[in-house]
Amino acid sequence: MTTSDTEAADAGGQTLTIDELAARAGVTVRTVRFYGTRGLLPPPVIGPRRVGRYGGEHLARLALIEELQHQGMTLAAIERYLGQLPSDLSAHDLALHRAVVASWAPETAERVTRDELARRAGRPLTDEEVDRLGAMDVAVPDGDGYRVDAGLLRLGVELLDVPFSPETVLAARTALLEHSRAAARDLSRLLRDAVAERDAPDVRSLSAHMHPLVVQALLTTFQRSLREELREWLDKESGE
């Protein structure tokens, strides 16, 4: 691997050509180039033979742009939103931003064909991978098609590449659901008590304003807690 490729891999854990990036993101090469000229995507790392190499942060940024579009934001509004973000955000940080944006929208489930499922996944899917998406409740068989949770599809596809068994992924999902629901109940109780004396319109306005802030707070605290847990575990392993 060349130095340029190593830099790209370090930045996003993978190196992709523009064609591969477009396919993974479910957009056209023309769209990738257009976003690049508008400054929505950072330039690629130039490798051998002057071939641009893209990393995971480019893929995550495209996913964020797609989510912002789903929320009805114009291109100008998306440019302003991305312009306020630090330029050196990692793919993980961008995924957190996308999760917050996705939380603004109601749950959405769509029925798609097998071909459409693969197109939205950005890559071909084996029967085993489709079964795993079904086990994660991301793409559930529905007649001759699939009922897809659009908000979870990209995350589910990324989990297909994680070297964990389906049982481990499902156990992790159960743990996250249980603890997140408990946190949501406690936070809802606190917010209800805080706005108990307010008029209904004020309560709805405050709820709409607080929703993305609460989700961001949950994501941030969970990220820090997980990092601390992993650090303690690694320190313990290295000390044995």
Mind sketching the topology for me?
Layout: H1 3-12, H2 18-25, H3 29-37, E1 45-46, E2 52-53, H4 56-70, H5 75-83, H6 91-103, E3 109-112, H7 114-121, H8 127-135, E4 139-142, E5 145-149, H9 150-159, H10 166-194, H11 200-239
Antiparallel strand pairs: 1-2, 3-5, 4-5
Helix pairs in contact: 4-6, 6-11
Write up what this structure looks like.
This protein has 240 residues and is mainly alpha-helical. The protein has eleven helices and five strands; from the N terminus they run αααββαααβααββααα. The protein has helices spanning 3-12, 18-25, 29-37, 56-70, 75-83, 91-103, 114-121, 127-135, 150-159, 166-194, 200-239, and strands at residues 45-46, 52-53, 109-112, 139-142, 145-149. It is globular. The relative contact order is 0.08. Residues 1-12 have low confidence and may be disordered.
Give helix % range: 55-70%
How many helix segments? 11
Structural class: mainly alpha
- Termini gap: 33 Å
Count the beta strands.
Answer: 5
The largest sheet has its strands arranged as 3-5-4
- Estimated share of beta-strand residues: 5-15%
Shape: globular
Low-confidence stretches: 1-12
| Largest sheet data | 3 strands, antiparallel
Average residue pLDDT: 77
* Integer-rounded radius of gyration: 20 Å
What's the SSE pattern?
HHHEEHHHEHHEEHHH
